[in-house]
Amino acid sequence: MTVAHGPVVLFGGTFDPIHRAHINGARAIARALRCPVHLLPNAVPPHRDQPQADGEHRLAMLRLAVARYPELIADDWELRQDGPSWSLRTLQHFRSVAGERPLVLVIGADSLATLHTWRQWQDYPALCHLAVLPRPGARRARAGVLATFPEGDAGTLCQTPAGRRLMLKRPFLDVSATAVRDVLAQRGHCPALPADVEAYIHRHHLYNVVQRTDSTADTSSTDPGTA
Ligand code: ATP
Prior knowledge:
Blueprint: E1 8-13, H1 20-33, E2 37-41, H2 55-66, E3 72-74, H3 87-98, E4 103-108, H4 109-113, H5 124-127, E5 129-133, H6 143-148, H7 154-159, E6 165-167, H8 177-187, H9 195-204
Parallel strand pairs: 1-2, 1-4, 2-3, 4-5, 5-6
The chain binds adenosine-5'-triphosphate.
Adenosine-5'-triphosphate binds next to helix 1, strand 4, helix 4 and helix 8.
């Protein structure tokens, strides 16, 4: 089947906070598929600890992080929904919006390794493709998951609505939001954060951040989300 338009690409996450591996990964997908990528912070992640920063702050940091990249879109759809942020519900919504266009869900290789535990994951191939970012330390995914989503290249993903899996080789970045939060609490600075995001964290005293005493501390209050 040929498709009328380019793919709709969704990259969901807690983004607590957004870091360089999220940004570089999203940009790599946008380059590979030649289309924009929507980044969707979740409201109530069903599979993990709840975020430390509330949705308004996580969205504000995301907006700052993507501001210089026209191919990246901060999308608040999941934050506007009630209840747990089931990926299935998000995919069903965007499938209805996309019609026959390809729908692509971006995940890290660690998420692919746990996909068999996600609610109704067997329904995913009818709804979307997967684009998988490599991640240091990620376990291999279950054979059943790999077989359910046969591997394809970027061209295949752009020519069919759903059901294939694109495996990216880069970026390969040993970064996690957990480590970023720990480093911020210890040192007040983390190189894996975009500068605007780090300044926002300081302004809003997020993540038990150690207050900076150097001249780089940002005192402006022009960001979204500032009361
Ligand atoms: P935390 O440490 O709090 O679990 P995280 O860094 O894993 O956070 P999430 O917001 O939970 O970030 O991740 C959103 C998506 O981004 C997931 O699909 C995850 O696999 C992926 N991801 C996060 N960090 C990386 C990374 N370094 N490389 C590849 N994918 C990543």
